[in-house]
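Write out this protein's structure.
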Amino acid sequence: MNLIAQLNEWYELDEHNQIIHTLEGMPEKELTFELKGHLGRAYNNDSAYDKALKILLSESEKGAEDALWNFRVGYAYYCQYKQDKALPYFKKSALLGDNTAKSWVNSCEKDLESASSLTSNMFLNNMDTNNFNESIKPFFWVEHGKSVSVCLNVGQYKIEIFQSREEEGFEGNGYDWGSLATVFLEEQKPELREVVKLDPEGSMFCAYSSDADALKKFILSFKEACENDSLIRDLFSRAELD
């Protein structure tokens, strides 16, 4: 207990190197789970995140249900700009009762969302027109001044998907594609629901928006989903007949 009190005192005085020196000088067999936690914290505060992770992860089994251990691992990953690895540890720490971890969960999620948006925008900006048009076939892109549309002449592409529910009245017409796209937006791209609008007709599926980037994100991801047979069938199982 005297050692723990001393470690905490050094921590308050920002004497992290003293903590590291003391604990690293102890025999391995004397380094308990709690002491390794203090050593990991000291390495984190000394910006030696790889060393912090090495010592903390050596106690993964004991630390799995420990809020403080999960927080320290999450912190080490976060400070290395590895928010994707940090997030599950912060979430577990918060679940185990560490209220401080909740704000770090929010920070991770915002960082990851921003990174995803940036990557997506860079991809869209770097994709030339010919490659884009080729990648979305048989859908096709139409520009109308202040808005843009993406359309599909129905009747050939993925007709087998709609035939799986033919007895319920699905024909694979534009309205059926609209029903499928509605489920896709709700479950896969909810952030686009307010900016991407659907306007199907009997022989044509059509989606439009005044935000060209948003519509590009929609059609690229929708086409990708269409090429994933198990995913598109799962989504279509929840489509409602118009």
